[in-house]
Amino acid sequence: MNATTRETTAPVDRRAPARWSRVLRSRGWLKLIRLLAVLFMISVLTFLSLQLLPGDPARVILGDQANDPATLAAMRHELGLDQGILARYLDWIGGALSGDLGSSYVTKETVSSMISSRLPITLELVILSQLIALVLAIPAGIVAAINKGRGADHAIGLWVFGVLSTPNFVIGVILIWIFAVTLGWLPANGYQPWSEGVGAHLGSVILASISLAAAPFALYQRVLRADYAETLGRDFIDVARAKGISPLRIVFRHAIRPSILGLLTVTGLTVGVLIGSTVVVENLFGLPGLGAGLVSAVQNRDYIVVQGMTLVIACSFVLINTLVDFLYGVVDPRLRGATAGNREG
Amino acid sequence: MTTELTAPPAVPSGSRRRGRASRRRSWTWMEILSATWLVLLVFGMFLLPLILHLDALEFDAKARFAGPSAEYLLGTDNYGRDLLARALSGAKVSLFIGLGSTFLALVIGVPIGTAAAYFGGWVDAVISFVTDVILGFPGLVLALVLTAFLGASKTNVMIAITAQAIPAFVRMARSQTLALMNRDFVEASKVLGTRPHSIIARDLFPNIADTILAFAFVAAGRAIIIEGGLSFLGMGLPLPQPTWGVMINEGRQYLNTDPHLILVPSVFLMLSILSFNVLADRLRADATTDGGGKGA
Q1: Mean pLDDT taken over chain A
Q2: Rounded to an integer, what distance in angstroms lies between the CA atom of residue B49 and that of residue A15?
Q3: A83-86 contacts, C-beta under 8 A, 24 or more apart
Q4: CA B249, B251, B253, B256: dihedral to nearest 10 degrees?
Q5: What percent of chain A stands above pLDDT 90?
Q6: Could you tell me which of B254, B280, B219 has the C-alpha nearest to residue A1?
Q7: Which positions in chain B touch A6 (Cβ < 8 Å)?
Q8: Which of A165, A279, A281 to mutate to probe the B interface, most B CBs <10 Å?
């Protein structure tokens, strides 16, 4: 979430721990087992979260209606509270694997249909905000690196630092104030599907995407600036200059390739962070995505929905991070078999 | 940063760092302003309500949406409540939860991470696995769901924010310790037969302390962001306790007419997080030029 941690967390673990855990890291299929184990533990924790509720979950969920013994018994049965905890877990995870996560107590809608209608909106926000962040961060990073230590670098750095220190909902409110209230160009909130027209649709998601893009933009700019500045100091750049290759060509061709790897990694790892950030931003902009669904489920004490959505969010987060690790090995063959280093949540 | 030639610290101890303090670069105006803001905020939130007789909850029907005046220095909100008083009351919550949960996460996470790196093997494998599992939940989602299930109270919000912060400290401490494990002074201690807890406490902790402290400032800023997000979503401390997130959320509907309702808490929030980040950058720069922990 916060980019300023990156520099201090960078040292990658090159030390070989005990033998079998080294095997776990080097062999692809054992990595897969580790991944499955992580997913399994996530499902167990998500399942057990219901146990954190003070008192009988059925009573907590029902609230006032818990006084009716028949309703209470029905709810206890629906939650499986009349069974042992292991049976309940197996039942729940079995359902989850076949796409049945139960149904909302409030709306009666099934959790999986809620997720499938909400997920595309969240994904669109994540993709749009990644694009915005990259489009802004790449030039900002390169300009800062070329002018390292000079005015432009300091100015961009200060701006990035400010963005980094502003929570996304504050950025969102500022954007609403500028573009919706003062200028009146865009709606302050509400969602327009594609069927309402491309302009209306994009208009309804663009401010949210910019709010989401702010933190990744700052992170990417810092990462790219550092890597790019390092590349510019390498010998082969001097050689290229000495050969008389034009400075522009060096900047845009020779220096980019070696500098882009760090950026690629954080871009991938940020996808998961963005899914987390949508929780607040979707709520602010009234967009019916997964994050807003989670919040309204929490507010309605709709715990079955909370469980289901948390499971989906956490699993996609882990799977995306694994995919990034994998792609990292594809992009940089030297790192095959190693991990992509530290992941910051 | 200046490339300062430093001999590797043969005997790591507090005196080493203190002796070097005089050679550090002077404070920039950003750093001075940041420290000043945090100090003012701490004094302000305790003293100003007493001096100015502020009440964060008192309604004033005659002064709704008032601008800044002698009576209400930063104006009032939709119920005529003093925005300065509310912002200062929110500062108590943000700083208490931000610093408290960061402190707890540090105290829990750093020993675990150091132990993982020191012992390696299955200890490391288990700790890394558990860390991976917890990091599978995005920070805000974990905090939100934990608060939802535990119930929103000061303690539970603190627990939730601490829980999402611990893995980062574990990772930090682990990677920092790993960088030290092959250094001669650690090897020497081992050869001499020093007990593990003593090596960890006397050789490893002092050397990772600078970097961890720098990271703690980042984590404090992050904790304040998450606390703000939780209260913005109505899942923070129970009402009527004013927090910055709650104030921003309540001010949303008056954005058209009275943006100062949001401006006041937003400025407090941004300045506080910015201050923590500026100071963290400074501490990290010191830690890396110091030769102690291995920087990036």
Answers
A1: 77
A2: 54
A3: none
A4: -140
A5: 3
A6: B219
A7: 296
A8: A165
